[in-house]
Amino acid sequence: MIKNVIWTVVFGLIAAVLQSTLLSHIALYRAVPDIALGIIVYSAYINGTMTGQLSGFCYGLALDFISAAPIGLNAFIRTIIGALAGLIKGTFFLDVFLLPMILCASATLVKALILFLLSLLMAGMIPAYPIAAPVLWSELAMNTLIAPFLFALLKRFSSLLTRRER
Fold first, then answer.
1. Angle at 160 between CA 78 and CA 75, to 5 degrees
2. Contacts of 110 (CB under 8 A, 6+ apart)
3. How far apart (Å, rounded) are the C-alpha atoms in residues 126 and 143?
4. pTM for the full model?
5. 153: buried, middle or exposed (CB in 10 Å: 19+, 13-18, 0-12)?
6. CA distance 4 to 163
7. Which of 44, 53, 96, 135 could form a disulfide with 86 if both were Cys (CB 3.0 to 4.6 A apart)?
8. Residue 106 backbone class (left: φ over 0; alpha: ψ -120 to 50; beta: rest)
9. What is the pLDDT of residues 72-103, one digit of tens each?
10. From CA 9, how far away is CA 29, in angstroms rounded?
11. Per-residue pLDDT at 56
């Protein structure tokens, strides 16, 4: 399990670098696809809740240290998303098209909901997605559209990301 968490975090950090460098040039309404979120969702769905939580927490904490976000914000959000994605492990057949899209779209909406609730609790200290602005909906569309391609790519690295059952 530790190997899966480490590789998920490594792939997530590579995705974070891609998001902030290359993908920021093709941003739509200043929104870029959250590839690292899809990686955490994939790892959690394949390996279960514990791996999803640990991967989400470790990647989120690393992201907190390299970004301007308050320490613990990304760790909190990614831990919850990893846990929720891990809860449905084995519930559905992982097809190549529809389920990755549903999982990544749901994770994006959960991320937006958590940020909204935290911004209410923290009196605006945490930026939330404005519901009427196209930023959330652009990111949702991009995350949903790239999900099948991302999951197909991650299946190529299943020896690193998937726990072997005994």
1. 15
2. 80, 81, 84
3. 22
4. 0.89
5. middle
6. 7
7. 44
8. alpha
9. 899 999 999 999 999 988 777 767 789 999 99
10. 28
11. 93
DSSP label at residue 90: T
Distances (CA, A) of 18 to 33, 101, 121, 130, 157: 10, 21, 32, 25, 18
Among the listed ranges 34-48, 51-65, 114-128, which one has the minimum average pLDDT value? 114-128
User: What are the φ/ψ torsions at residue 28 (nearest 5 degrees)?
Assistant: -110, 115
Closest by alpha carbon to 32, among 151, 145, 152? 145
Measured distance CA(122)–CA(110) in Å, rounded = 18
